[in-house]
Amino acid sequence: MSVSALPEARAERARRSLDGLSVGDGFGDRFFAFSLRHRLERSLAPGPPWPVTDDSIMACAIVEMLLARGQIEQDSLAERFAELYRRDPERGYGGTARKILTAIDRGADWRSTTKAAFGGTGSSGNGSAMRVAPLGAYFADDPAAVTEQAILSAEVTHAHPEGLAGAVAVAQAAALRARGETPDFAEFLDRIAAQTPAGLTEARIRRARELGPECSLERAVAALGNGSEVTCQRTVPLCLWLAARHPGPDDYERTLWETVAAGGDLDTNCAIVGGILAAGGTAPPAEWLAAREPLTAFFIAAPRGGDADREES
What contacts 64, CB < 8 A, 6 or more positions away? Predict the structure, then answer.
């Protein structure tokens, strides 16, 4: 199915995915304080408000840039990431992200700073993947641009090949959903793997495909990881497996409950899954969206849509 390349259509797809990402982020983050039994039993969702973490804040910076400029401009994105971190550093940023963003804020060149992480290998952390689904939705009409722009967005903080691969895989998954295509479980994962740079992330996406949709959650976590190591190669494959299992328009809530039941990096896993699902129109429940912290504080200018409307009402 063809999708529009008009700026207005692209912007709407990005906003839709951002809502799914940020609701997932806020929902997942609340469960760090809840027991595994509570998550497995799918008890009532935690009460509002649901503050968001760095996952959503960095995604807002990406969406803001796309709405204003239509592409990723790395120097400006690095500065914006650093500014948002300085403004509110207690939003769940990891240790490596803190070092990189602090250095950028103090005037260091992001290229050398990012490449120096982890003894010169660069970071393979899942931060590159947690924020990128709206970018995939935005460029859904141009799959080549999805890969190019996802890499540009990741390189600002993640120089390791797996950090780049994780961003590409999530962006391509969101783009596939945003195009309105409905491949089955196997085809969905096959197509994403084919567009993901070769490496551990790509290999584990193929492993996720081999597991099949009927595999137990426990076995999938054991085979693919659940983000506990906060790397792309041990986060993204499980998230894609979860998103591939339930592509229906009413499956957001069901899939997010399964995602928190998987444990691990709860907010990031839910942000990735939520952003992919919402890119294809699988929207979060209205009460979940209302519970999520408004995102307007993270934009220079408030985006059109739900947040602005709720702030005015």
Answer: 80, 299, 300, 303
Count of positions (residues) in the chain: 313
Q: What DSSP string describes 147-194? A: HHHHHHHHHTT--SHHHHHHHHHHHHHHHHHHTT----HHHHHHHHHH
- What's the rounded Cα separation, in Å, for the pair 293 and 274? 16
Looking at residue 298, the DSSP 8-state letter turns out to be G
At residue 54's C-alpha, the angle toward residues 48 and 56, to 5°, is 65
The phi and psi torsions of 140 (rounded to 5 degrees) equal: -60, -25
Question: Of 102, 99, 21, nearest to 57 (Cα)?
Answer: 21
Alpha carbon of residue 210 to chain centroid? 23
Residue pLDDT, tens place only, 4-42: 999 999 999 999 999 999 999 999 999 886 655 555 565
Mean pLDDT of 223-248: 95
Cα separation, 128 vs 232, whole angstroms: 8
- Both structure tokens of 216: 């137990």
pTM (whole model) above 0.85: yes
pLDDT in tens, 100-156: 999 999 999 999 999 999 999 999 999 999 999 999 999 999 999 999 999 999 999
Helix 7-30 and helix 54-69: axis angle, to 10°? 170
Does the N-terminal peptide bond of residue 49 adopt cis geometry, omega within 30 degrees of 0?
Answer: yes
